[in-house]
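A reminder from the course coordinator: this example appears on the midterm review sheet, so study it carefully.

Given structure:
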């Protein structure tokens, strides 16, 4: 069993050949992406955070809007968090947006207007792990540090026929060492991007295009006819499912919205009050109880407005949304951090999770 990359049969000539072929292919065939037109570490940081868990095609528009709104780290640091979350709405994993904002504030206060260059300093930025720090340091500052994201890991597992579990701590360590051995010291940023691009465009998870691959003749899995075996698979767990009841609490033409606590799932976003349907409880009973617990209001639960099925990254939900008539009480942020009465037309000024956005779109449709 391999315990380090040094034990792998990686020759110097193989490494040099791989770097050359990879780079030639990348220079000719890589995608023109907006964050590849800049050496600004702030913009590279924003793109890397957006690209965590999100596809390039989705990120492009968000990135361009975000950079147009906050062209520099000082602009981002000076913005209210609510505006940052609003621009992030729909991109998911909202902790990323909160960390970007927090990180910008910390960098501006700790480093003046300069982005930290040192790898250990970059890792201190909230939300920046080993991969993101290596990407920023190598792309923006030409630091000789290899990145290993999911794409690079897959390319390495196949080219080297790595038979360990790439997700285990020992697997990550060995693949990181191997990536470092392969890294082109003269152009670390370009090399890292080329490895990621190869994994994204050619050496993809389900149907790698080996016939078009620039490193086909160097690839051990391809030579052995065993591409499908790598990377080693692990069994997947199914996502948990939650049954939720939520309330459209009407007071004339005003609707009540509540802001979720900062920490936790979908933190800092706004929503229609509601929550989990408990055992032996009807959705209507859950709505009445949740509204009272969350805001202190008494409501009369009326008709079902809509049922929404939605899958988030770590769980899926069935959300039953009921019209409710306001009866009494003054709304208080008991189980949330803020409450507001707003008109339907104003809902677009707030950031909501995707499932609530489906409700808002329908409300707006009905009003138009
Ligand atoms: Fe991936 Fe196939 Fe290229 Fe090997 S030859 S790196 S398996 S695309």
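Designed residues:
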């Amino acid at each position: 069993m391999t315990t380090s990359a040094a034990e792998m049969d990686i020759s110097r000539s193989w490494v040099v050949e791989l770097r050359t072929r990879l780079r030639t292919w990348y220079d000719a065939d890589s995608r023109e992406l907006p964050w590849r037109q800049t050496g600004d570490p702030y913009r590279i940081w924003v793109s890397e955070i957006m690209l965590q868990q999100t596809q390039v095609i989705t990120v492009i528009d968000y990135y361009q809007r975000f950079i147009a709104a906050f062209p520099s780290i000082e602009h981002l640091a000076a913005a209210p968090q609510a505006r940052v979350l609003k621009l992030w709405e729909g991109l998911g994993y909202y902790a990323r947006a909160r960390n970007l904002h927090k990180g910008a504030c910390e960098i501006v206060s700790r480093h003046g207007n300069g982005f930290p260059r040192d790898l250990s300093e970059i890792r201190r930025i909230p939300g920046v792990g080993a991969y993101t720090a290596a990407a920023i340091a190598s792309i923006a500052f030409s630091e000789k540090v290899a990145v290993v994201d999911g794409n690079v890991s897959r390319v390495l597992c196949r080219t080297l026929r790595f038979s360990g579990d790439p997700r285990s701590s020992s697997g990550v360590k060995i693949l990181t060492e191997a990536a470092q051995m392969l890294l082109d010291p003269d152009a670390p940023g370009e090399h890292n991007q080329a490895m990621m691009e190869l994994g994204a465009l050619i050496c993809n998870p389900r149907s790698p295009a080996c016939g078009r691959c620039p490193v086909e003749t160097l690839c051990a899995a391809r030579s052995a006819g065993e591409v499908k075996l790598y990377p080693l698979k692990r069994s997947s767990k199914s996502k948990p499912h939650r049954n939720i009841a939520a309330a459209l609490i009407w007071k004339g033409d005003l609707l009540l919205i509540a802001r979720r606590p900062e920490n936790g799932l979908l933190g800092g976003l706004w929503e229609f009050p509601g929550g989990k349907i408990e055992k032996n409880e009807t959705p209507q009973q859950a709505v009445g109880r949740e509204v009272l617990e969350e805001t202190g209001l008494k409501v009369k639960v009326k008709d079902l407005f809509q049922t929404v099925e939605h899958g988030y990254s770590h769980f899926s939900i069935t959300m039953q949304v009921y019209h409710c008539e306001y009866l009494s009480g003054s709304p208080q942020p008991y189980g949330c951090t803020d409450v507001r009465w707003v008109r339907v037309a104003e809902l677009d000024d707030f950031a909501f999770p995707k499932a609530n956005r489906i409700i808002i779109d329908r409300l707006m449709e009905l009003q138009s």
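The chain has 14 helices and seven strands. Residues 170 and 335 are 42 Å apart (CA to CA).
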